[in-house]
Structure formats: structure tokens, C-alpha cells
Write a structure and sequence with these properties.
- The complex is a heterodimer of chains A (316) and B (323).
- By secondary structure, chain A is of the alpha/beta class.
- Chain A has a domain of 173 residues: 3-Layer(aba) Sandwich (Rossmann fold), CATH 3.40.50.
- In chain A, 35% of the residues lie in helices and 21% in strands.
- Chain A contains 11 helices and 12 strands.
- In chain A, the strands form 3 sheets. In chain A, strands 6-9-10-3-11-12 form a 6-stranded mixed sheet, with helices on both faces. A 4-stranded antiparallel sheet of chain A has the order 2-1-4-5, with helices on one face.
- Chain B is mainly alpha-helical and 323 residues long.
- Chain B is 73% helix and 4% strand.
- In chain B, the strands form 2 sheets. Chain B has a two-stranded antiparallel sheet. A two-stranded antiparallel sheet of chain B has the order 2-3.
- Chain B starts with a helix and ends in a 15-residue tail after the last helix.
- At the A-B interface, helix 2, helix 3 and helix 6 of A face helix 7, helix 8 and helix 9 of B.
Chain lengths: 316, 323
């Protein structure tokens, strides 16, 4: 990913525009070895009245991979996606995340389990700064309860570097410790800035989300989703409206997201991007899975070519 | 028409208007926060205020505070009454949310159902204090006006020189108290982690949930905060007027709701602007014309303002509270 060319630094925070090489602050811990099953779509059928939106769809997402979900318009990609994030309950079959069935779980609980998503049509919190948008995501992982945050009873002994510089406050912190809420808030602030740097938009961290350019908004959505520390991050058409150079950047970003420890699911129309970045691809047509395999296999699969690619060179 | 009355007593009327407006503004916060997050007018909020005034009376009775107590007792009684009122009002608001609104929300009821339920809750609470409690405890409950001992006696603290305006301790308490609470709430919503969640839900509830914000918790928080503010308003009201009544919430609630709409419902700072504006308009208009028409002036002003600024003086949105 190319580095942002804007030279301005932002007040309040010390911004290093370069993406630093180590990501201690934002890398996540996975709950199993790479290649083990993370999410399982187990023979799922979904009917709306008489319409069969998904018909016996069956595939798995494995830890540490980048999986593409593609198909022509109306193939059931978004429906499948919504079922995976708990919006729809399958008529038949099960969707399991880390072995737990997720149908009927509330959205914020699904997020806590470790699934986050971005949206095809951008849905940021428009009246918050970029930084605050990401911090909302970080807040999802905070442990301090509402009373805990109000009364700050739970205190921890701070490390040397966490002590305030001011003499009196320093002495106070040494004696009484620092509340976990404060420490979490500071950690959230650091992580948020790190994430903004990671996606390459740290230079405008304190601008309102609605004032950011389109490309920045898309990346901000990704940063916000990453902030919730999801094992599985689902990107819904992340390249929509991007020019070729931006798509190139995005592919790099998706790979680096995987390197942080996340498993990535990409729904995308742009074949070049999907073939270029994914490890495996699942192809849907009319609510059925018609192919599954590596990009090469899928690109050569006659069924896929017939159904979706048309002319192999000029797809999507 | 008596413009001379208004002009000659402008300082006094202004002080009156700000006092009255501060109380409206504090109650208005409850309407505006709930609206900002749920797009719902909580018509039971007027009774949340009413319960607060009874909590003040209850506290004074229990600790035996009366007019003419020493300074220590006055401070202790006022602080305890404040805490009791905040607790009682917040508890009432939370109970209304839990018992009346949450089951409806779970079933996905349409917005109109919430409105009528709110009005129903309001009536139930009024009748509890007007009838039910009297059956069990007798007076002071019942359908009469009840005096609250003026523990904090009105005394002139200083006189503004030049215009010769006497400022009393109660007025200072009301105005300063209201402003402090509003600043605190504003800072809470704009600066804190919980406030961030509140704004996220106000701006886009579905996305907020998908990002891990617990919507139910935000809704509870909003009711509790709005209730606590109504509790503060209840104490300040009793300090100024020394009375309560089973239906005291009705007109104040209506005025506070008007203030919220005037300022731009869903907007915290709008509640302050709307409250003060309404308080001043009422007092000024009463000085010029007949004071028995106070309520008429208030609502005429509402209609006129909304004709020109349908979203209120500062415009809608809790999310936009960040200036």
C-alpha cells in the first residue's frame, strides 16, 4: 500500500504517517491453528415465502485464509452474508462460528464472539471524528462495566511509563493506582491511532467522518471493524467505487489484515481483485454453490465461466 | 398592555425567566436524550419529575428538616434531598423503560404504541400519588397541593449595583445547579466512552450494534441520566416554589417538552437554549399582558418558532451534539 502523501500532522496526537512495521498494539490472538475451521455454513437453506434464496449451501471458512464469495447479482451473496452475521436465521441447516451456532444471537453478541463487518454502502457514524468511529469499535472489547466506569473503583498499579508527568497526579497514581477504565481508554486511544495508521488515514484522524473523502471513509470502515478485534472480518464489496490504483492498495491492505491474525471474507464483484487476493473462492449462483476452490481452479471451472465470467478477460 | 412594567422591571423579569427556564431545561434533557436515541417521546417523563418532588418531601420528613434549621442541617438536608430525588426519578424512569417500553421493543411494536403507552404510564403514576398512596398512608398523599418546608430559606445574598437587583440564595442555587448539571451531561456525552456509545446509537443504531455496542444498555443509560436530571430539577423546583402535588408534572412536563422541541429535540444544547428561551418569553409576556395567560404565550411561541424553524432553534440530533 502506498503511503499517504499528505504532510500535515494532526494536533493532540503524535502522528507517524508511516505504517510502523510491528503491530503489537493491533495484532490479535487467534483461538486455533491456521487452517482449522472458523465458520461453518452447514447445508444452509433459506426461504422467504416461496422464494429459495439459499439452497443447501455448504462451505467452511478456515482460520488464517482470505476467502472470496462471488456470484452474479441476485446469486445470494448478501443473503448468505446476512445469515452469517446473524441477521437471518436459516430455514434449514446451521451456521456455526467456532463451533457455536449463531442463529438468533443478538448483533452485539455476534460481534463479541468475533465477527465484524463493513458495509457495501458506507455506514459510518457521520458526526463523529474518524478517531471516535474507531474508538467505538475498541469500546466493544472493554471490560469495565457502566458502574465501574462511573465510579472508577477497580484500580490497577500502573507501569512506570503509564504514570502521569505532573508531580501531584503522579504521586496520587502511585498510591491509589489508575482505574482500569482510564487505562483501557488510553489503550483504546493508542490502538485506534495505530489502526488509522495501519489503513493509512491517520493524517485526518480528527476530522468528522462525513467530511472525509470517499476512499478514506471506506478504509475507516475497515479500521472500525478491526478495532473490535474480530477473528473473522467480512468485507462487503470493499472495492466499490475504487480506481485501479486504489484497488491495488486495497489488495495489499487485505493481505496485511490477514497477517495481523484475522481471517478475511471478501464479497466482491471485481474479478481481478478477487482472483488476485483470495486463497480460496466460493461461487454462488441462484442460491446454490456451483464451485469452490483456489482462484486458478475457479477461473478455469467451465460452470463458473458459463454462469458468471462470460468472457474470461472482461468479467464483472 | 403594559410595556412600562416590562421595561422598568426588566432585570427582575430576566432573573425570573432564567430561573424558570433552568428548571424547564433540566427536565427537557430527559425528553431530548430519549428522543435522540430511540426516536421516541417519553410522555411518562413528566411524572419522573413529579416523583422527584415527593422524594424531596420524603427526605425532609424523614430527617426532620424544617424552615429555620441551622446551616449544617440545611446543607445536609439539601444534599440528601438532591440524592434522593435523583435516585427516585432515575429509578422511576428506568422502571418505566423496563416495564412499559422494553417488552414493546422486543415485539417490534410501531412508534404510536410507545406514545400511548407513555401516556398510560404517566396516568398510572399520577393516580398512584393522587389516590393509591393516600389509601395506604393517608395525607400528605391525595389530590391536594402539599407544602414542602422551605428548608433553604430565601435570603438576598448580594445586590447587583447600578440596577439594584437583589439576587437570592435560592436563585443562585437553581441557576448554578442547572448549568453545572448541563455542562456535566454535555461533557459526559461528548467525552466519555459511554457517551460515545450513546452517540453511536443515536447516529446509526444498527451499525452500532454490529460494532459491539449494547443497545439495551445505552437505552437504560439514557433513561437513567434523563431521570437523574429530572430529579435535580425536582429539588430546584421545590426550593423555589415549596410545593408539590400529584399532577404537578403535567404542566411542567409539557413545558419542558415544548422547550426541547423549541431548542431542537434530540439536541442537548438545544434543551438549554429552548428552556431559557421559553422561561424568558413566559415571564416577559406575563409582564406585558396578563400573567394568567402564561401557558398561552408559551405555546403560541412554540407554534410561531416551528413555523419558521421546523427542526427547532438549534436543529435536531444527539449525534450532532459535538459542535
Amino acid at each position: 500500500m502506498s503511503e499517504p502523501t499528505h504532510g500535515s500532522t494532526v494536533e493532540q496526537e503524535e502522528v507517524v504517517l508511516k505504517d510502523t512495521s510491528d503491530h503489537d498494539e493491533i495484532a490479535i490472538e487467534t483461538t486455533g491453528p491456521d487452517g482449522s475451521v472458523l465458520l461453518e455454513v452447514d447445508h444452509v437453506t433459506l426461504r422467504f415465502g416461496g422464494v429459495v434464496a439459499l439452497n443447501d449451501v455448504n462451505f467452511q471458512i478456515r482460520r488464517g485464509e482470505i476467502l472470496g464469495l462471488i456470484g452474479p447479482n441476485g446469486a445470494g451473496k448478501t443473503t448468505c452474508f446476512n445469515a452469517m452475521t446473524g441477521v437471518y436465521t436459516p430455514t434449514e441447516g446451521k451456521i456455526r462460528f467456532k463451533g457455536t451456532e449463531i442463529a438468533g444471537t443478538k448483533p452485539h453478541k455476534i460481534n463479541q464472539l468475533g465477527i465484524a463487518r463493513t458495509f457495501q454502502n458506507i455506514r459510518l457514524f457521520p458526526e463523529m471524528s474518524a478517531m471516535e468511529n474507531v474508538m467505538v469499535g475498541c469500546d466493544a472489547r472493554h471490560k469495565t462495566s457502566v458502574p465501574g466506569a462511573l465510579f472508577r473503583i477497580y484500580r490497577q498499579r500502573p507501569k512506570e511509563e503509564e504514570l502521569p508527568d505532573n508531580g501531584i497526579r503522579r504521586a496520587f497514581a502511585k498510591v491509589f493506582g489508575i482505574s482500569r477504565h482510564t487505562l483501557e481508554e488510553r489503550a483504546g486511544r493508542r490502538r485506534s491511532m495505530e489502526l488509522l495508521r495501519f489503513v493509512g488515514i491517520a493524517d485526518r484522524a480528527h476530522e468528522l467522518a462525513r467530511n472525509l473523502p470517499y476512499g478514506y471513509q471506506r478504509r475507516l470502515e475497515i479500521a472500525r471493524a478491526l478495532a473490535t478485534e474480530p477473528e473473522l472480518i467480512c468485507l462487503d464489496e470493499p472495492a466499490a467505487g475504487f480506481n485501479p490504483a486504489e484497488k491495488e492498495d486495497l489488495m495489499g491492505l487485505i493481505r496485511r489484515i490477514r497477517d495481523l491474525g484475522h481471517t478475511v471474507l471478501v464479497i466482491e464483484h471485481d474479478m481481478k481483485l478477487v482472483l488476485g487476493v483470495t486463497d480460496r473462492i466460493v461461487v454462488l449462483e441462484f442460491g446454490q454453490k456451483i464451485a469452490e476452490g483456489t482462484p486458478d481452479e475457479v477461473a478455469r471451472n467451465p460452470k463458473v465461466i458459463a454462469a458468471y465470467l462470460g468472457e474470461p478477460d472482461d468479467a464483472a | 398592555m403594559d410595556f412600562n412594567n416590562l421595561i422598568s422591571g426588566l432585570d427582575r423579569h430576566t432573573l425570573d425567566g432564567i430561573t424558570r427556564g433552568s428548571i424547564y431545561a433540566l427536565v427537557a434533557l430527559g425528553y431530548t436524550m430519549v428522543y435522540g436515541v430511540m426516536k421516541l417521546i417519553n410522555f411518562a417523563h413528566s411524572e419522573v419529575f413529579m416523583v422527584g418532588t415527593w422524594a424531596v418531601l420524603g427526605t425532609y420528613t424523614v430527617i426532620g428538616a424544617t424552615a429555620g434549621d441551622g446551616l449544617g442541617m440545611v446543607i445536609a438536608a439539601t444534599v440528601l434531598a438532591l440524592l434522593a430525588a435523583m435516585l427516585a426519578s432515575a429509578g422511576t424512569a428506568l422502571a418505566v423503560e423496563r416495564i412499559a417500553y422494553r417488552p414493546l421493543r422486543k415485539k417490534g411494536a410501531p412508534p404510536l404504541i410507545f406514545l400511548i403507552t407513555g401516556i398510560g404510564c404517566s396516568m398510572v403514576l399520577v393516580e398512584i400519588f393522587g389516590q393509591v398512596l393516600r389509601v395506604f398512608f393517608g395525607r400528605p398523599f391525595g389530590r391536594v397541593t402539599v407544602n414542602i418546608p422551605s428548608v433553604l430559606e430565601t435570603k438576598t445574598v448580594f445586590t447587583i449595583p447600578g440596577i439594584d437587583l437583589a439576587v437570592s440564595n435560592t436563585r443562585i442555587l437553581i441557576i448554578v445547579g442547572a448549568i453545572v448539571m448541563m455542562l456535566a451531561l454535555d461533557a459526559f456525552v461528548n467525552k466519555s466512552r459511554l457517551g460515545r456509545g450513546v452517540r453511536a446509537v443515536a447516529q446509526d443504531p444498527d451499525t452500532a450494534s454490529l460494532m459491539g455496542v449494547n443497545q439495551e444498555r445505552v437505552i437504560m443509560l439514557v433513561f437513567v441520566l434523563g431521570g437523574a436530571m429530572a430529579g435535580v430539577a425536582a429539588l430546584l423546583y421545590t426550593v423555589q416554589y415549596d410545593i408539590t402535588k400529584f399532577d404537578i408534572g403535567f404542566i411542567i412536563g409539557l413545558k419542558a417538552f415544548t422547550a426541547a422541541v423549541l431548542g431542537g429535540i434530540g439536541n442537548l444544547r438545544g434543551a438549554l437554549v429552548g428552556g431559557l428561551f421559553l422561561g424568558l418569553v413566559e415571564v416577559y409576556a406575563s409582564a406585558v399582558w396578563d400573567s394568567s395567560w402564561t401557558n398561552v404565550y408559551a405555546f403560541v411561541v412554540l407554534v410561531v418558532v416551528l413555523m419558521f424553524r421546523p427542526t427547532g432553534l438549534l436543529g435536531e440530533s444527539l449525534g450532532k451534539a459535538r459542535a
